[in-house]
Design brief:
This is Tyrosine-protein phosphatase. The chain is α/β, with parallel strands linked by helices. It is built from twelve helices and seven strands. The chain has one domain: Protein tyrosine phosphatase superfamily (Protein-Tyrosine Phosphatase, Chain A). The strands form two sheets. The chain has a five-stranded mixed sheet, covered by helices on one side. A two-stranded antiparallel sheet has the order 2-7. The protein is globular, with a radius of gyration of 17 Å.
């Protein structure tokens, strides 16, 4: 089977108890617009997916609609709707040039603070209190999806080092797909735009670090952010860990 771009399962161990994240529940990926029959069978029968969450914008979903899987529930959670910065879409990467690092830091601030992002991640995390195999994705599976994965692992008490390792694994997982995008765009955009897209297609430790720093600056702690920012119940972390950690 041809690999599905940036598909992987979340794992790790609670740094305080040593309990492992239960396998078979959380899968992250890039967009699912080109799934062949074998890949569809793999997702349905091997991973036993029951739900797919799409973090993309309406424009992205219209341009590159997901291949729908029979028997799988679909949910759209556009965490960037009504914000001024959608630097996570391919179209925005092509339209912009230069200062990619600064623009991505701004994007990650919006992930932390924008009301639409907070509402979206609240919706996503609370939905996980009903355990079922779920795949969540955006365009590249790196930014909106990367934050969702980091939130899951952080709530489960996984170490910052393991969270970062999962986040940075995108750069290896997307190498072939990124080269295809750049080759396709080479004759269509300027050299500056192509360099900007190349830079925007990868993740940087600074981005995720900045996200958590912004949370600390505005809320004092991650735990307070969950309650005051994401409006989760005070018992959410305890309940979540009881569902998804095993000895």
């Amino acid at each position: 089977m041809q690999p599905i771009t940036n598909l992987r399962v979340l794992g790790g161990h609670n740094q305080f108890t040593g309990a492992a994240v239960k396998p078979g529940y959380f899968y992250r990926a890039g967009q699912l617009d080109q799934l062949d029959a074998q890949q569809q069978t793999y997702l349905r029968q091997k991973l036993r997916l029951q739900r797919i969450v799409d973090f993309r914008t309406a424009d992205e979903r219209q341009r590159y609609p997901d291949v729908r899987l029979a028997g799988v529930t679909y949910e759209v959670i556009d965490v960037l709707v009504a914000t001024n910065n959608n630097g996570a879409s391919l179209q925005s990467m092509v339209a912009a040039s230069g200062a990619v690092h600064a623009r991505m830091l701004e994007l990650y601030e919006q992930f932390a603070l924008a009301p639409t992002a907070q509402a979206g991640y609240h919706q996503f995390l609370t939905s996980l209190l009903v355990p079922q195999p779920v795949l969540f994705h955006c365009f590249a599976g790196k930014d909106r999806t990367g934050i969702a994965a980091a939130l899951i692992l952080k709530c489960l008490g996984v170490s910052d080092a393991d969270i970062l390792a999962d986040y940075l694994a995108t750069n290896q997982a997307r190498q072939a797909a990124n080269q295809q995008i750049l080759a396709h765009l080479a004759a269509q955009v300027s050299a500056d735009q192509l360099r900007a897209v190349q830079a925007a297609l990868v993740v940087d430790q600074d981005y995720l670090t900045h996200y958590f720093e912004v949370i600390e600056q505005h809320y004092g702690s991650f735990e307070h952010y969950l309650v005051a920012g994401l409006r989760l119940a005070p018992t959410f972390t305890r309940d979540f860990q009881q569902l998804y950690l095993e000895a």
